[in-house]
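This section describes the prediction task in plain terms. A model, or a person checking by hand, is given the sequence of a single protein chain and must write out its three-dimensional structure as a string of tokens. No templates, partner chains or ligands are provided. The sample shown here is typical of the held-out split.
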Amino acid sequence: MIRKLLLSAICFSLSACVGYMSFGNGDKEYQNGQFGLGGKGFVNEYKPETLTADQLIEVWGQPDKKYSDNDFEIWRYNKSGLAWAGIMPVIVIIPIPLLVPTGKHYTNFKVQNNVILSATENIRTGSLAFCGFFPFDVEPIVRFGCFSG
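The expected answer:
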């Protein structure tokens, strides 16, 4: 009887017993005036401002790479660290990372005549799904089920 109670208590305390997470990379584009500058390589969509190329160089320094594309230049700023892709199954709250490095995250700026036309930020994307007991929900009751996001 004590074993059954102990096992039940352990099962109810395990949140998200089984699930997975997937990771990948995607691009998010901003027009000038829709973003500000964060740390090097990161744009801030919550403090938008209109920026010139001179302001960009003043804050982040020279780009890591420049190349021409028709009537404008692309300026690339690399972010620190690696970009990863793959899946991470979760079994009885133990994550098993199955990820591989896929390069670096970066931000590209489209520049023409000292004016920034747009910024494209390479960001991490992903999805997740879990099934299990969820004892700490908004209401003080134990729930069992699955969710995804």
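For orientation: The longest helix spans residues 2-13.
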